[in-house]
Amino acid sequence: MKTRYRNIKTKIPAPQSRALFADMKQYEVADMYEHELPIIWDRARDFQVSDKWGNTWIDFTSGIFVANVGHGAREVRKAVEKALKSPLLHSYLFPNDSRIQLTRKICQVSNMDKVLLCVTGSEANEAAIQTMRRNRKGKILTIKGAFYGSTTACRDITKDTIDESMTPKSIDAQKVAGVFLQVFRGRDAKFMPSDWVQMWCAWAQKNNIPVGFDEMQSGFARTGKWFGHQHYNVKPDFITVGKALGGGLPISALLGKKKLLQHSYDLFSTHTANPVSCAAAFAVLQTIEKKKLVEKSAKRSKWVEDLLRKTFPDNEIYGRGMMWAIYTGDAEITQKVIAKCAEKGLLLVSTHGPAIKIGPPLTIPDGAIREGIQVIKESFEEI
User: What are the distances in angstroms from CA 311 to CA 3, 6, 316, 370, 374?
Assistant: First the structure.
């Protein structure tokens, strides 16, 4: 099967990949791969992913919202290549040029005063948790059903949750250390109601409680703004970012107002502010501005929504910008559709829930979006 944007030459999984999967099964812990599609990536360029055996997919995942500026973006690769020639692959906590230019730039685009660079999203969220608890004692309120990371602290904060049915009236402010929101739950791309978000932010700030947003998925032009919280006309005390920041390289950050983020509290690691990752991240921010990806994501938002609603009139559609979800109501149906799409040359985000999530690179052409959505429709009809 070959189209303008897809090319599937083998069965999925590719027969030639079975030996490699056997090696993974023997040596790697199972939950690192068993929940994903049986595809071995070989290369990725812009909005497409390919394996070694001639198969090419349209990527509606952005590598799980990492490739906002496109897989292997030329500007990012050039910055990395230059950094590798320096040669400075590591500088621990000593400053380097790429770190300095990145910290200046990311504070400017986020309208924050201070930044603490980290490596992973979980690490940045852990830093946010510890920063809130250094300033106040008590629980941290999080969005019900949301994911904040895989560390112990990130998992623990999901015990004290709030949802759209709750108001601050039921909460004792003296027992709250912070409010840690998300623009949407990662499982379904359903954006939180504006008045609800504004209510919680106003309550927190009235009671001098730090309030912030996990922008791991919603940041860097994904929703038609630089950051998702900007849709709500609120001014958080902090945000956490990662994923798309490095354009494929590992880097994340906690950004905050000066009153909150005065010290690192030793929340750094050996690989904090790696010069190669910093160079890549600076190139990502420059590329978003140069290619006007914030504006393009906002402009295409209504067009994508209309296309989805026309194609799936019987399903609920959630989203904004270039982050969308088709609600199926059944996790099993969702997984079957995702598997069928992979056989047809389309990669989708698996949330293991009742929604098909769509988040392609922001550089994807309109034709590839149309083709991908048609593949989802065909897969629905065939399962």
Answer: 20, 20, 11, 10, 8
Ordered by where they begin, the domains of the chain are 15-69+292-382 (3.90.1150.10), 74-290 (3.40.640.10)
Classify the phi-psi angles of 166: left when phi > 0, otherwise alpha if psi is within -120 to 50, otherwise beta: beta
Can you list the alpha helix ranges (DSSP code H) found in the chain? Answer: 18-27, 62-65, 74-84, 97-110, 121-135, 152-156, 194-206, 275-290, 293-311, 331-344, 366-382
pLDDT tens digit string along 247-300? 999 999 999 999 999 877 677 788 889 999 999 999 999 999 999 999 999 999
Angle of helix 293-311 relative to helix 275-290, nearest 10 degrees, comes to 70
Q: What is the pLDDT of residues 11-46, one digit of tens each?
A: 999 999 999 999 988 898 876 666 778 999 999 999
C-alpha span between 131 and 262 (Å, rounded): 10
pLDDT digits (tens, 9 = 90+) for 89-114: 898 878 899 999 999 999 999 999 99
Looking at the DSSP assignment, which residues form a beta bridge with residue 331? none
Of 207, 290, 279, give the one whose Cα is nearest residue 249.
279
Q: Give me the residue label for tokens 């912070």.
A: 178
Matching residue, tokens 């009235």: 206
User: 57 near 50, Cβ under 8 Å?
Assistant: yes
Tokens of 178: 């912070």
Side chain identity at residue 129, one-letter code:
I
pTM confidence score: 0.95
- What whole-number distance in Å separates Cα of residue 349 and Cα of residue 75? 26
Q: For residue 273, which of 299, 350, 264, 25 has the smallest C-alpha distance?
A: 264
